[in-house]
Amino acid sequence: MKLHPLISIILGLFVTLLLVMIPLVFDAPPLVGNAMFIFAFILGGFIATYFSKDKKIRYSIYMGLIAAVLFSIIESPDGFNKLPAILLGFIQFPGMSLIGGLPGKIDYERVKQTKQFGPIIAIIAIIAIFIIGISLFNVYY
User: So where does this one cross the membrane (predicted)?
Assistant: First the structure.
């Protein structure tokens, strides 16, 4: 499905915000909330890249930057108490979205060469990246 880049970015952002809200609504444990947060941005970046007409990786980065702006507005820092977290979000959110956008771009190149539809490969790649990311996150913390 080919969508206008702005529509694919908004779709990725909507899915990301929806998935981020699920652990908050159901009062999930912190580890589940963190895992869902990372997965939300990876999936949002994938959607922003995969469903756009041009399949450019920069759409996932744009989606991450828009999410960083939205989250910084939601956080509304009191003075400079939350400023480091907000600045880290401007690096972290586009980075996680970029990780999700890469399988969308890779799958598009494979489809373009073989003339076969293969979103399954991209979804498997996203799940593998997610599992590796969560494993690294758990080792780090």
Answer: 7-26, 32-52, 59-77, 83-104, 116-140
Half-sphere exposure of residue 59: CA atoms within 13 angstroms, side-chain side: 29
More confident residue, 50 or 125: 50
Whole-number Å distance between alpha carbons of 96 and 37? 10
pLDDT, residue 88, reads 75
Q: What is the reported pTM?
A: 0.72
Q: Which H helix or E strand runs over 82?
A: none
Number of domains in the chain: 1
Buried b (16+ CB within 10 A) or exposed e, 29-38: eeeebbbbbb
Flag whether pLDDT at 79 surpasses 60: no
Nearest Cα to Cα of residue 42 among 136, 134, 130: 130
